[in-house]
Specification:
Blueprint (H helix, E strand, L loop, with lengths): L4 E7 L7 H19 L7 E7 L5 H15 L3 E4 L3 H13 L3 E4 L12 E3 L4 H15 L3 E7 L2 H16 L3 E8 L7 H10 L4 E4 L3 H16 L6 E3 L4 H7 L7 E4 L8 H14 L7 H20 L4 H8 L4 E3 L2 E6 L4 E3 L3 E5 L5 E6 L36
Parallel strand pairs: 1-2, 1-3, 3-4, 4-5, 6-7, 6-8, 8-9, 9-10
Antiparallel strand pairs: 10-14, 11-12, 12-13, 14-15
Helix pairs in contact: 1-10, 2-3, 4-5, 6-7, 10-11
């Protein structure tokens, strides 16, 4: 018998400044859709309706409106940047739909109409900055894209660094898709900062990485680069210049878990031996499975029922155990730190001993205290990081 079909929207840019990551999100989401549709475990099939906003921020609202009005979807997976998520957020709240957002983001948001599958700032920014403060420097030079993710990530970084009696040496921003990076690279070479924190997105980041590597090598400088977003497909795009970047993420292809090894094998069988899944793509894969399992348990696509069915359900995903914290709709994830190598992969050198609860508003943060061995942070008697 033919399974009943449930329409699900997928919004990810296949063109524009961050098309590479949009395509990775689509590839991972469609892999999960096809797997679910071929499993007897699920008594329904997912009908994917894909929309391409082409990296144009205003188009995200347009395609979301089309999916809701003309297709009748109740669940949407996608958006890569926080700027695009904030375009979609008003319409999903107004029409009471559910957005399953796969990308790591800056935190300080909580909506009943969003499931935040990617990392919160306590999953990636905090472990990275703690590592830098303890092992590299108390001075950081920041370069990033001129939008909310960079603004908020830099703000949290500044709070942590200044509390440790360090300082942010500079914050240099480029518009999304901007390729004119020479003036920033020249400043870095001239000032010789001990570390550079890169929150550029898409093509801007790849141009910067290549220019940074060439200029620092020519000047005989060895300046570590930091990232909370760089992933394996981007290492291949940026080329050998990307080696040596210290990256904080919940997912790397090199995770040695049986679930991940099986996932990577299926991925390569589908997309080619030389391809690699990305962190946000893998999160889209997880989002589809979390949605499908919640739909199965709820027995309906009604978002209230699905949200209740999704909360607290443990899924042994490629990145490890993942579940949704029903108090804030963010996922419990395992933070990790790794350094990129010349083979286009990451060597993991630290991970939390257990999954860490999401803390999107950093209400559990005491910036004067050191993190526990499992990556969690003690309760704070006062708040320093607030919106």
């Amino acid at each position: 018998m033919t399974k009943p079909s449930i329409p699900v929207g997928i919004i990810c840019s296949q063109h524009g400044p961050y098309q590479a990551m949009g395509r990775e999100i689509l590839k991972s989401a469609m892999m999960a859709v096809d797997e679910i549709n071929n499993q007897d475990e699920f008594d329904f099939a997912i009908s994917a309706h894909v929309r391409d906003p082409r990296g144009i921020i205003s188009e995200y609202h347009t395609v979301c409106d089309d999916l809701i009005r003309n297709v009748g979807v109740e669940h949407i997976i996608g958006c890569y940047t926080s700027a695009s998520r904030k375009q979609v957020l008003p319409i999903v709240e107004r029409t009471d739909r559910l957005l399953w957002y796969p990308a790591r983001y800056e935190g300080f948001e909580c909506s009943d109409n969003v499931i935040y599958v990617g990392a919160s700032p306590n999953h990636n920014v905090l472990p990275l900055v703690r590592y830098v403060l303890d092992n590299l420097s108390r001075e950081i030079f920041c370069v990033g894209s001129n939008y909310v993710w960079t603004w908020e990530t830099n703000r949290v970084t500044r709070e942590l660094v200044t509390a440790a009696k360090g300082r942010i040496l500079a914050e240099r921003l480029l518009e999304l898709g901007e390729s004119a990076v020479t003036h920033i690279v020249d400043e870095i070479v001239r000032r010789r900062p001990p570390v550079v924190f890169n929150t550029l997105v898409g093509s801007s980041s790849y141009d910067f990485i290549r220019a940074f590597h060439a200029a620092t090598a020519a000047a005989g400088l060895d300046i570590p680069m930091l990232s909370c977003s760089l992933c394996e497909p981007e290492l291949k795009i940026a080329g050998p210049a990307s080696a040596g970047c210290i990256t904080s993420s919940a997912y790397f292809e090199s995770i040695r878990l049986p679930e991940n090894r099986a996932f990577v094998a299926r991925w390569k069988a589908r997309y080619g031996e030389h391809s690699s899944p990305s962190v946000d793509g893998q999160s889209a894969y997880v989002a589809v499975y979390l949605l499908a399992r919640a739909l199965q348990r709820a027995g309906t696509s009604d978002i209230g029922e699905v949200r209740r069915a999704a909360a607290g359900h443990r899924y042994n995903s490629p990145q490890g155990p993942v579940w949704i914290d029903g108090s804030n709709n963010h996922c419990v994830l395992t933070p990790r730190l790794a350094v990129s190598n010349a083979e286009g992969q990451f060597d993991i050198f630290w991970e939390a001993e257990a999954p860490v609860r999401p803390d999107p508003y950093l209400t559990q943060l005491d910036i004067a205290a050191s993190p526990a061995r499992d990556g969690t942070l003690p309760n704070a008697p006062h708040l320093r990081v607030v919106k």
